[in-house]
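Recap from last week: sequence in, structure out.
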Amino acid sequence: MLLNCYQQEFLEAGCDEAGRGCLAGPVFAAAVILPKDFNFEGLNDSKQLSHQQREELRPIIETQALAWAVASCDHEEIDQINILNASFLAMHRAIEKLHTQPQYLVIDGNRFKAFPAIPHSCIIKGDGKYLNIAAASILAKTHRDEYMTNLHVEFPQYNWQQNKGYPTIAHRKAVMEIGLSPFHRKTFNVRDPQLELF
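Predicted structure tokens:
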């Protein structure tokens, strides 16, 4: 069972991102502050949930959280500063957008660029340990999925509605046959040498 938060002394926001491993589109991040008594059965790491479960949990999180925010870094920023720094920047943007300022941050993963004046802890696989990080993972994932689904209308040949920009075999083949869209990350290697083995 996931714990509500990492520590009890300070008002805490959980942070996570979605889309780091994609070939196209932005990286999204979310920051979520949950009530101390928040406990919703079924809330878990977004990767452990189905698309439908994530979509059902999103409005529950957004209505019951004390504060939540979602932000992103686009493909051009990712190419300029690299995906790790873009992930940190997207998290910083989400934290800045919170209408309630947290006193402590818990970050999914093992690295983070410190946010000014707010202490933090990095939690490896934190989205499977703490509800506020799990909630952030769901918001980042669902908001990014929605963005890529909308983008699919303009670029249906890459099937972003289904793959959301991740490097599936069909997505990589489409890039090799058609070329890059304006939304692809140019610094990512599409020509995977393993491709012909499948």
